[in-house]
Task: structure prediction
Amino acid sequence: MARGELHIQLAVNYADDEKFEEVSRSARLLYVDSLCTAKELLNDGIFSRAKARKLMYPERPSVADKAAAELVAAGLWRWDEERKVFVIAAWLKRNKSRSQIEQDRQEAEEAAIRGNHQRWHVERGRTDTKCRLCKEDPSPPGSGTRSPSRSGLRNPTESPETETETETETETRTKPPVAPRAANRPPEPPADHDGAPGPAEALVTEWINSCHRHPPRRVIEDLGRLVLEMLGDRIDPDDIRRGIRMWQAKGSNPRTLPSFVNQVMNSRPANVVAMRPSTTDDRVNDFVSAGRRLQALHDQQQNDTRELTS
Result:
């Protein structure tokens, strides 16, 4: 299951619901496709007639209209005459509306901003002129005063009832409450030693922005610490950036980052070979020199023989 994918809750025996007794297989497939599409588009379970026909493609429009009529007759869909659209009957009873989802996202972002402000500014006694909360909070840095309460946020210990979703109104099945999730996202990368944004924070932020989802806090802390150490050793930020890319592509432990940076700095391309004299050329030259010496010795012997016989 890939990260970031959307899913719907659908009971494996959903077709046993009494509302599906008179519904054809084509209509059931249209119903399931409509659930997936509504989840993806956040459209509150609303479909135009053209959209319903598109979900049934490559079937003919008349087949799609017939399947939609079956769902309306069974009470799974309803027809809104005023807006001229189909509506999944139980969608908003089993799922949050688009406005609720957007409100939850805004509250989560605000909680993350306040958490980061508390961790990196209030607790460390620093002030960031770009931080909205640093401008709003009248307490002096380092006073240990917590940030203003997160008004409007739901209690993280409250867990809503989770239902096994068939998107019908005939039966509601509940599961035990799940463990609450933290409202805060992992913290942002640490600032440099002087508290102002610098090369280390820029490198770590660049890496975070390239990730598909926000990395865990421990990984960010390990990476930020190593980047600060390497910058303290006067390593070129471009070499560190290239090392981070190699490490990210490899998926290794963050503590191995220095080895990737060292590879970027000191490794040679595989096709580069040090130049050295050819031993074959040396042997050929030796044979040629020996041949010339033998020829000179032979010529000298012939001259001596001619002188003796003359």
About this structure: DSSP finds eleven helices and three strands in the chain.
